[in-house]
């Protein structure tokens, strides 16, 4: 796990400067809307009718994934450290054309 020393980090899901950086993959769906996943947290899956709505749903999905890990007593994947899921998120994402 990375330390929370306030140093900047480019590692996925690591706190840097009061923000959490989380890589995301956004895929448009054939019937409309978008699905969002994260290679850093494979259990994170959400969607929305618009890109904006899908991105807004990421925080709820992140909180649900963190709750699952905590309930099951599982450690977060290597390189992922989230001490406060309410902290601002800096979202890095790739939009995959469908």
Description of the structure:
With 98 residues, the protein is of the alpha+beta class. Helices cover 21% and strands 28% of the residues. It is built from 1 helix and 5 strands, in the order E-E-E-E-H-E. The protein has one helix spanning 51-71, and strands at 15-16, 19-28, 34-37, 45-48, 89-95. Strands 1, 2, 3, 4 and 5 form a 5-stranded mixed sheet that branches. The chain is elongated, with a radius of gyration of 14 Å. Mean pLDDT is 77; it is low at 1-9.
Strand content: 25-35%
Largest sheet: 5 strands, mixed
* Helix/sheet category: alpha+beta
- First CA to last CA: what distance? 35 Å
Alpha plus pi helix count: 1
**Which quaternary structure do these chains form?**
single chain
Mean pLDDT: 77
Number of β-strand runs? 5
Shape: elongated
Rg, please? 14 Å
Helix content: 10-25%
Sketch the topology as an H/E string, one letter per element. EEEEHE
Low-confidence stretches: 1-9
Please give the structural blueprint.
Blueprint: E1 15-16, E2 19-28, E3 34-37, E4 45-48, H1 51-71, E5 89-95
Parallel strand pairs: 2-5
Antiparallel strand pairs: 1-2, 2-3, 3-4
Concise account of the structure shown:
With 98 residues, the protein is α+β, with helices and mostly antiparallel strands. 21% of the residues lie in helices and 28% in strands.
Which terms summarize this structure?
98 residues; alpha+beta; five-stranded mixed beta sheet; 1 helix; 5 strands; 21% helix; 28% strand; elongated
């Amino acid at each position: 796990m990375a330390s929370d020393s306030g140093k900047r980090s480019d590692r996925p899901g690591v706190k840097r400067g009061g923000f959490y950086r989380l890589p995301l993959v956004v895929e448009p769906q054939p019937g409309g809307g978008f699905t969002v996943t994260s290679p850093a947290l494979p259990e994170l899956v959400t969607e929305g009718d618009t890109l904006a709505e899908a991105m807004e749903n990421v925080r709820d999905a992140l909180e649900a994934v963190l709750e699952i890990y905590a309930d099951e007593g599982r450690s977060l994947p290597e390189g992922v450290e989230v001490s406060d899921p309410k902290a601002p998120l800096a979202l890095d994402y790739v939009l995959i054309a469908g």
